[in-house]
Write a structure and sequence with these properties.
Two copies of one chain form a homodimer.
Chain A lengths: L2 H4 L11 H24 L6 H8 L3 H7 L3 H5 L1 H15 L7 H23 L2 H13 L1 H26 L8 H22 L5 H19 L6
Helix pairs in contact in A: 2-3, 2-8, 6-7, 6-9, 7-11, 8-9, 9-10, 10-11
The structure holds a DNA duplex.
Chain lengths: 221, 221
DNA sequence: TGTCAATTGTCAGACGCTGACATTAGCCTC
DNA sequence: GAGGCTAATGTCAGCGTCTGACAATTGACA
């Protein structure tokens, strides 16, 4: 499975009917307006009516595109996560679990950047990440989404290693610890006032290398 | 600092005025009714009006006791967490970080049980835990609360070890990984249909011992 | 062109939550 | 133990999120 193939639903056979294109444009406009408003005046102080009005649609239409106000806030995260997971699936089969995770998270940065650009300005995506981390209700949802992603990662690791996830706790444990490292790095980056993407990438690599040795031992089946 | 002293605000000099006792009873009744309703018919399908009505107070009064509907759902968790943190503070100074965390989580079970009994039937507390794990919006809040607790744990570990939490990532990393292990154990317990507390305790101990060796190495300052 | 189905708008309403103000009921002093 | 003080509660109006129902519009396709 290649990285591109794993990112399902991203590639659109170019001219997919006027109706479909119109929907895509509306959705995209809603995301951009929402993120613009959230980052400018805060998540709580932005109402769904405002977002809908900015795109000139009714509030009801907004809720046909997004199940709730939170969902639109995670639109660009969603895209990034899909690419990260695809990167993991694309790692060579022989690679050790932690090395595969490390490689995926560091390699994915490029393809994630491209994917985000299609949707919103990358700088807006980063600003939105800070808003998520600093808004309690969004942070809660973010952590739940992360937990769901970790479950998927654990299943993929188990598949790679030929382990049964229901009886062997190691895939989930490894991923849980990996997730912890990522979260610590992300949090430190958020608190620092550096706006550079490179910083976050390097910070992640540094923290992964820190705990790597303790976790990287070969699993004796 | 002893365990008892660290649990602030739990001990009440018995006859603290009629007003105060009445407030305690109202609060306690709200928690019990809420948990009863949540576990019986689900969190989303229970309205704040229902809870208030069951205790014969106005909806407005409910919101004077709890900032939102979520808060009442975590009332017994809150109590348990306070005791766990107190248990950590009570560990001997010489103990290694991971051993202290392990000891705290396993030892605290007793004192947690007692504290919960004061508030709600322990069995209701356990049923509520399942509701939290299986209700998306509550799970999200639960994970955020956990993250906040982990931050406090990291600071306490740093204090014990004489480390500066702002420059040394190890306390946060250790706690993040510890939290991951706890979460995996809790999740497995939730999915199994065992209703026993002992099972959860043992499951936690097992998973901690599994990763313990990899993390327990002495920190060379 | 006319029919069909998908998309959107409008409206009403449930529910969570808050501010403002009136009412009730412990508390404390004289 | 009467009366004033203040904390707790109730009532009411209103905002914001979200949903169901139905009508109006607008692509798609024969």
């Amino acid at each position: 499975m290649t990285t591109d193939e794993a990112v399902a639903g991203t590639r659109t056979p170019p001219p997919a009917g006027l109706r479909e294109r119109k929907k895509q444009r509306t959705r995209s406009a809603l995301v951009r307006s929402a993120l613009e408003l959230f980052t400018r005046q805060g998540y709580e102080r932005t109402t769904v009516d405002e977002i809908a009005e900015a795109v000139e649609v009714s509030q009801r239409t907004f809720f046909r595109y997004f199940a709730n106000k939170e969902e639109v806030a995670f639109a660009s995260q969603e895209s990034a996560e899909r690419h990260f997971f695809a990167a993991l699936c694309g790692r060579p089969a022989g690679e050790a679990p932690l090395a595969a995770l490390r490689g995926a998270v560091l390699d994915a940065w490029g393809s994630i950047g491209e994917a985000i650009e299609q949707l919103v300005p990358p700088e807006l995506h980063l600003r939105m990440y800070r808003v998520i981390e600093s808004t309690p209700s969004l942070l809660a949802v973010h952590l739940r989404r992360t937990a769901e992603m970790e479950e998927r990662l654990a299943r993929e690791i188990a598949r790679r290693e030929g382990l049964d996830i229901d009886t062997d706790p190691r895939p989930r444990l490894l991923v849980a610890m990996f997730g912890g490292v990522i979260r610590v790095a992300g949090k430190l980056w958020t608190e620092a006032e550096e706006d550079s993407v490179v910083t976050l990438r390097d910070l992640t690599a540094f923290h992964l290398d820190y705990v790597g040795p303790a976790l990287a031992e070969k699993w004796d089946k």
